[in-house]
Amino acid sequence: MNASAGLRDALAGIFAAGAYSVDPAETLVYGYDNSRRQAAPDAVVFPTAHDEVVALVAACRRLGVPIVARGRGTNTTGATVPVAGGVVVSFERMNRIVEIDPANRLAVVEPGVLNGALQAALAPHGFFWPPDPTSSPYCTIGGNLACNSAGPRAVKYGAPRENTLGLRAVAGTGEDFRCGYRTTKGATGYDLTRLLIGAEGTLALITEATLKLTPLPGARRLLRATYTTIQSAALAVSRIMAQPVVPCALEFLDDEALRLARAHGGDAIPVAGAMLLIEADGEPDTLAASVDAIARAARGEGLIELVAANDAAEADALWAARKALSPALRSIAPMKINEDVVVPVSRVPELIGGLKAISARHAIPIVNFGHAGNGNIHVNLLYRPEDAAQAAAAPDCLAAVFDLVLALGGTLSGEHGIGLVKREFLPRALDATSLALMRRIKAQFDPDGLLNPGKLLPD
Amino acid sequence: MNASAGLRDALAGIFAAGAYSVDPAETLVYGYDNSRRQAAPDAVVFPTAHDEVVALVAACRRLGVPIVARGRGTNTTGATVPVAGGVVVSFERMNRIVEIDPANRLAVVEPGVLNGALQAALAPHGFFWPPDPTSSPYCTIGGNLACNSAGPRAVKYGAPRENTLGLRAVAGTGEDFRCGYRTTKGATGYDLTRLLIGAEGTLALITEATLKLTPLPGARRLLRATYTTIQSAALAVSRIMAQPVVPCALEFLDDEALRLARAHGGDAIPVAGAMLLIEADGEPDTLAASVDAIARAARGEGLIELVAANDAAEADALWAARKALSPALRSIAPMKINEDVVVPVSRVPELIGGLKAISARHAIPIVNFGHAGNGNIHVNLLYRPEDAAQAAAAPDCLAAVFDLVLALGGTLSGEHGIGLVKREFLPRALDATSLALMRRIKAQFDPDGLLNPGKLLPD
After folding, report:
1. Is the pLDDT of residue B385 over 90?
2. B23 versus B244: which is more confidently predicted?
3. Which GO terms describe its molecular function (chains A, B) (predicted)?
4. A63 and A106 within one domain
5. What pLDDT sits at residue B82?
């Protein structure tokens, strides 16, 4: 696709040379994301200020050009693929930490700030921002907000919706606004802040966020628990979450995931039917009691071994192996289907059992790991597209996974969002009225349907 | 007002005798709330099931009759006063606790369940639901959700928006829907759950809520800190909230509030320039360390005395005196204006200083107390309507309070909501685009404007 003369002129009037491109050779790289889907944008722009975004949306609306907001494209759902062409707005240069206010436990950031960079800036003040996707060194706060992306710590500290106080944004109408508060309580009108979080850039472009900060715990300890079977590990998850001490991470790896992790992490990763990584945090003089409570719950039928990481280096090695799983799976199965379904914690054992049965029935290997403390399991269907039988079975296999999840009282996505790849399944998860209300809300923010068309809501 | 024949017929077709009334002598009592505003409804209904609410909204829409959802009317903003007549829907008989699911840390309740009844039912399971308005023994979960009502514990555990997983509701169109999840993570479409919470019944009637539960702490300790001046107490609030251990309540009482509390609580309440009630919770073997950390921060210039309640009875007496403040103020000043403004915690000293100046300038006594840990101060303007000068000064005095709050980065309401009495001030707190988006969202849920007309959004 090529930018029209009108679009070229409009962009030249808003952005300095070097802050936008209509050259297909340059824009190509902004046409795909971690979903491996791809489409060609007409242009990519690199705003450095809120007012440029306002001017851009106004111009695009006048010209009828789609607008796709983009952080660093680490999402797995195709949420930033410009399937209808138009302008990709890369926020990579709008990356200032505007303010860190420890007294009020908040930080104000532009959307392009990297999650990891924010954490590094907050640490000297004794705070952190709880959402920590596996991609935190190279994903942006704007992307985290767009997808309500969480990570391991959400089990104790919540996702972006629980950790964001307010936003500045530009709606698809071109109108800009502020919503939310600089306070931790507020009852002044409808909650537009949470409405924008998780909306995947379909309602408005976020240009600034006021984030709620949490004090860094003084100490942390990582436990590694291995079990003879996946079921015994899943039952331990239920026991841990039914007692009062909440771990700050409760990760699950099945036998296949363990084999992959061992390839990355070496001997720190044991051979077993399944493993839990359980992290507790707290103040140094109280941590031992918390660890004891969690350890008691982790013990039970099928436990092989429960050991604490001896030092930070061993804990880091365990975490590195866990975090390497997603890219490792990609390398062995380029066409993996990676879902992040979520079920009530007590149903995790049934989910895991059901997934094994679905895998066997469709002859497609399924590897499972993820944030078990939230019931949020990353389900990876590994199929070889060159295997005609597997390729034919994959869609039914995926549909069976979603049917199982919904039957267990769960939902399609815990933290990845819907994007391009899951939107046709949305009517299975939401009733017709909810879906209609979402469409009508969308039309108020973006009457011309220019913001991230083809995403989240089905046609 | 009188119900039309059409409305009478419709109600008789939906509700059993005794489950609705059109008799003005009976409906009168459903025409006012704790705001002391009053209006006459045409009818009051007492649904016992979701389907009755669906049928009711359909009938009212057909007849063009307003609908006002009501818990127990403990709100102070006139949110449940039927200013346009119509049907008051009292949820007092729709009060079943449908399910308590400790393994998944959730409870499913009908809207008429009393907050205190829910807490009592949860305690044997080792859980509680954090929102705890002062009126908890006689306010409903539905009302808490409608107003995003919080209470003292919100400083550590959040308000309803942070403690609700999902809802069932009936929109003003008559369509019913479910939104949210039975899981603690979810990224499947727009967040309708948080949109309904705090919407004061203007978007939909909530007929069921899935609430997120928190484990009851094993121990709790209450500290009473007195200070020579209001400023020194306000500075202590800032210090407490800037260190990592979060109290589960951090309440502030100024000198006038203390005098009133002493009248209720007797010698347990000291004479001082100001007092903080600071509660810490945690596990029994770790609580002492938390209390020490908080106590260190509470100490500083102006501290008179810092003492822990000796036992549960003494703690209860202190809390009872704090909780008696709002009704006590009403008895001495029937026309008090009670606001629940909120500012960033570090600005509380400036807020308190500014309020003293405003009080002096307008010659209207102002008594302040409230949830200082969230910056949420209950500001009570005590004026005598028979004093012509005071009555004339009251509106300007109130406007000056709001201007001060907004200048300090705060907002109009932390937990009471907007209702009838604050809606004309909303355009001071929200920008025009936000307000327009809220109106457009309202029109999607309630195109005929039948749900709680005259509330929250200004005309």
Report:
1. no
2. B23
3. FAD binding; oxidoreductase activity
4. no
5. 97
- Is A87 in the same domain as A102? no
Cβ <8 Å between A434 and B189: yes
* Whole-number Å distance between alpha carbons of A215 and A226: 31
CB contacts < 8 A, A to B, total 279
**Residues A219, A283: contact at Cβ < 8 Å?**
yes
- Do A365 and A407 share a structural domain? yes
DSSP string of A198-253, one letter each residue: TSTTSSEEEEEEEEEPEEPPSEEEEEEEEESSHHHHHHHHHHHHTSSPPPSEEEEE
Kindly state whether residues B139 and B232 are assigned to the same domain: no
DSSP letter for each residue of B197-215: TTSTTSSEEEEEEEEEPEE
| Over residues B118-136, mean pLDDT | 96
- Cα distances from B426 to residues A404, B347, B418, B434, B453, in angstroms, run 46, 21, 8, 11, 16
Search chain B and give the residue with CA nearest A286: B286
pLDDT tens across A125-148, in order? 999 999 999 899 999 999 999 999
Please list the ranges in chain A whose pLDDT falls under 70: 1-2
Looking at the predicted structure, is the pLDDT value of residue B272 above 90?
yes
Q: How far is B374 from chain A (nearest CA, A)?
A: 6
Instruction: Specify the amino acid at residue A277.
Output: L
| CB < 8 Å from A in window 156-175 of B | 158-159, 161-162, 171, 175
Mark whether A417 and A403 lie in a shared domain.
Answer: yes
Tell me if A290 and B282 make a contact (CB, 8 A cut-off).
no
Kindly determine whether residue B176 and residue A433, on different chains, have CB atoms separated by under 8 Å: yes
Please state the φ and ψ torsions of residue A172, each to the nearest 5 degrees. -65, -15
pLDDT digits (tens, 9 = 90+) for A7-41: 999 999 999 999 999 999 999 999 999 988 999 99
Instruction: Note whether B64 and B121 are same-domain residues.
Output: no
Q: Are strands A43-45 and A87-90 parallel, antiparallel or unpaired?
A: parallel
- Give the pLDDT of residue B1: 47
Residue of B nearest to A344 (CA): B183
Tens digit of each residue's pLDDT (9 = 90 or more) over B335-348: 788 899 999 999 99
Residue B266: inside a domain, yes or no? yes
Cα–Cα distance for residue pair B436/B191, rounded to 1 Å: 19
Residue B24: which CATH number? Answer: 3.30.43.10
Interface of A with B in 292-321 (CB under 8 A): 293
Residues 70-109 of B with CB under 8 A from A: 101-106
Q: CA-to-CA distance for B412 and B318, rounded, in angstroms?
A: 28
Nearest CA to B318 out of B377, B276, B380 is that of B276
Number of domains in chain A: 4
- Domain containing residue A367: CATH number: 3.30.70.2740
Does B440 reach chain A within 8 Å, measured CB to CB?
yes
**pLDDT at B434 (0 to 100):** 98
Beta bridge partners of A168: A178, A208
The residues facing A379 across adjacent strands are: A339, A368
The answer to whether residue A457 is domain-embedded is: no
Asked if residue A415 is part of any domain, the answer here is yes
Q: Give the gap in angstroms from C-alpha B427 to the nearest C-alpha of chain A.
A: 11
Write the DSSP symbol of residue B451.
B
Question: Does A196 map to a domain?
Answer: yes
Task: Identify the closest residue of chain B to A239 by CA–CA distance.
Answer: B103
The token pair that represents A208 in the structure block: 């600034």
**Other CB atoms within 10 A of residue B292 CB:** 13
Interface of A with B in 18-57 (CB under 8 A): none
**Cross-strand partners of A206:** A169
Distance CA B225, CA B258 (A): 12
Q: How many residues does chain B have?
A: 459
Residue A260 is predicted with a pLDDT of 87
Give me the phi and psi of B353, to 5 degrees please: -60, -45
Rounded distance, CA A209 to CA A188, Å? Answer: 18
Of B178, B183, B238, the CB nearest to A431: B178
